[in-house]
Write a structure and sequence with these properties.
46% helix; 378 residues; 6-stranded parallel β-sheet; 7-stranded parallel β-sheet; Rossmann fold; binds uridine-diphosphate-N-acetylglucosamine; alpha/beta
């Protein structure tokens, strides 16, 4: 007898910069696999060219099928506006499943809207926990996981977190890391990026005449940039590190705004930091891949540096991605200037962590998710 299978209609939701590289391989795999129709929904949480369009272009992603245009706002108003507008999309489209990625406000808002309409939610990158409730992302992660029907994890510790929160085993799937799928797919293309040449910098692996090794910095967590004190502590460390190695800093719009508000441009210039606007995916990957080390408060960059084998200094007091510390190249140091400088010097003296690639970070996470979805709906 012929097996007649219904097409699975998957709506993939994105909103902010760290979502795009997670959605790209899912879309690709669904297109490749038979039996899926997809709808890419962009909430518009991030809307600047450099925070959104540049990523679609670099990642070769199709234009979103739906755009909610919500923009910035307080947590409540941004979340509420996404829900209000997304509900209309869902009424019109009726997907079989809404897939959300990561932990931004769009992730929670789309999940909550879907589940209240009786539509199944799949959370990609489930189960990560920092146990730090001052982080909006921790609240987004925890709540999204509680209402998801399928939970796709990047590491075994995430499975354990979910089990400890009472989520049944048969909903949880350890599939690997979709963001690393994207990194592995695009790594070769970074050769085309002219960013290092333009800045007169050299990859740590091979220096041409007149080119210099460098470190990379990213900083955008509200806890680090929304008040003056932590930012000053970090800049103090950067001034010292900057004497040993130039630091390239592609800054998030939020951070640029706060640097201006605190009148810190002078201090930054004194530290020798090379301040840049946000970079696209390929330029940033090229920059990160060639660096001696990375300083960051981002979540995803802790994972990308581990995948690249580049030492990472995390400017936070905790991480929801412990596998990057236990297996990878990450060291969590907080914002104490003494600890930041000590770790940077350790790396510069050749004692940085080289780490190993965590299990299933092999470029096939999206493929595993697609197979699980097929089985789930068959
Ligand atoms: C959001 C995510 C965070 C993620 C980060 C990556 C939440 C709660 N936070 O933080 O987890 O690590 O994205 O970038 O969802 N802005 C612009 N242009 C834009 C977008 C934002 O200028 O395209 C400015 C606005 O002033 C805005 C501020 O950045 O108010 C913050 O944007 P928002 O989306 O609220 O949070 P992020 O800090 O970007």
């Amino acid at each position: 007898m012929k097996n007649i299978m219904k097409r699975i209609f998957a709506m993939i939701c994105v909103g902010a910069r760290p979502n795009f590289m997670k959605a790209a391989p899912l879309l690709e795999e669904m297109k490749r696999a038979e039996g899926f129709s997809t709808f890419l929904l962009h909430t518009g949480q991030h809307y600047d060219k450099g925070m959104s369009d540049a990523f679609f272009k670099d990642l070769g992603m199709p234009r979103p099928d739906g755009y909610l245009g919500v923009g910035s706002g307080s947590h409540a108003s941004q979340t509420a506006l996404i829900m209000k507008r997304f509900e209309k999309t869902l009424i019109g489209k009726k997907p079989d499943i809404v897939l959300v990625v990561g932990d931004v406000n769009s992730t929670l808002a789309c999940s909550l809207t879907a589940v209240k309409m009786g539509i199944a939610v799949g959370h990609v990158e489930a189960g990560l926990r920092s146990r730090d409730f001052t982080m909006p992302e921790e609240i987004n992660r925890l709540l999204t996981d509680q209402i998801s029907e399928l939970l796709f994890t990047t590491s075994i510790d995430a499975n354990e977190n979910l089990r400890a929160e009472g989520i049944p085993k048969d909903k949880i799937f350890f599939v690997g890391n979709v963001m690393i799928d994207t990194l592995l797919r695009h790594r070769n293309k970074t050769k085309k990026s002219g960013i290092l040449k333009a800045l007169g910098l050299a990859p740590a692996s091979g220096m041409d005449k007149g080119q210099k090794p460098y470190a990379v910095l990213t900083l955008h967590r509200p806890s680090n940039v929304d008040s003056k004190e932590p930012m000053e502590r970090i800049i103090l460390a950067l001034i010292t590190i900057g004497k040993d190695i130039p630091i390239v800093f592609p800054a998030h719009p939020r951070t640029i705004k706060m640097i201006g508000a605190f009148g810190m441009e002078k201090q930054l210039r004194r530290s020798g930091i090379i301040l840049l606007p946000p970079l696209g995916y390929l330029d940033f990957l090229a920059l990160m891949s060639g660096s001696t080390f990375v300083l960051t408060d981002s979540g995803g960059i802790q994972e990308e540096t581990t995948a690249l084998g580049i030492p990472c200094i995390t400017l936070r007091n905790n991480t929801e991605r412990p596998v990057t510390v236990t297996e990878g190249t990450n060291t969590v140091v907080g914002t104490d200037p003494v600890r930041i400088v000590r770790e940077a010097r350790r790396i510069l003296s050749g004692k940085g962590k080289s780490g190993r690639i965590p299990r299933l970070w092999d470029g096939k996470a999206a493929l595993r998710i697609v197979r699980i979805l097929k089985k789930h709906f068959s």
